[in-house]
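job 3f2a | input accepted
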Amino acid sequence: MLKKLRCFFFAAEYESFSKAGKALYISQSAVSQQVLSLEKALGTTLLNRTEKGVELTPAGEHLLKRCKPLLRELETALAEVSGSKPQSGFHLRVMYRGTAEDAVVVPLIAGLRQNAPGITVEIEKLSSTKNRMAALRNGSVDAVLGKRKARMIAGDLGFVPLCKTRLVAVVPPTNPLSNAERVTYDDLLDQPVIAMFKLDSHLAFREPSGDLRHQSLHDALTKDHRQPDLITYAQDTQSALTLAKAGAGITLIDSAWIADSTGVCILPFEEQDEDELGFFYCLSNENPALETLIKEAQAQFPELRYLGPDGRLS
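job 3f2a | predicted structure (314 res):
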């Protein structure tokens, strides 16, 4: 019965017999047969078969809700009794912003695969912080990489810090400030600036829950009714970096988001407080694989190092 329940659980989670089979290292037909056997034993249909995959029936939703925590408890208990590392076949879904964070994510996932090879890891890149956090809260992913100070951490979320980041100035090499030791707010008043918000509307961020450090920049550039001679609006970090490389002006970007600093000068900006980059997770998430990820993260990042441009940790 346990094998039947696990096949049902994975098919429901992945909404697909084939994906469930890959996660369990068995064939698609084997998963389908186990689920069918379970349905016959219970006398009810648990999954509706469609062209796109499978969908839970009301009976299937009820069974999944009741059995999901029990299955995970059983897997954890078996691992504890045997003294083995969690290798349950559970899958872990991780989402992060993009290539610049590979320096953190890639070795972490590699270590996870080595120490818990039975856990299937699914990785997705999504630039929108708002959408990443929404995916975390609706259960689409187990962990999201993000910055602690970029948003208020609600009571339903946990956070595991991995490294430190800070806001830096990206300056074209032709700009006179490229030879400076650092860039200040006042320096920006005499320079063309590439901003990821609009100065004509307070905190008109592309995403309403934008980085609080950009709020400080907005306030500094608009105090005493002053502002730079030229403001170029960039929709996202990559666009701002591209414009800076083209010589359009100076932009401020978090050090963790700069995957390639070729063609620009990276300078410290004012006396910026450091932020922390780490994994957000829902405290209600009972996936044992999530606990394994947290332990691996704490083992690999016992001290918070600075994540600079080009993915350099120092």
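job 3f2a | Confidence is low (pLDDT under 50) at residues 199-213.
job 3f2a | closed
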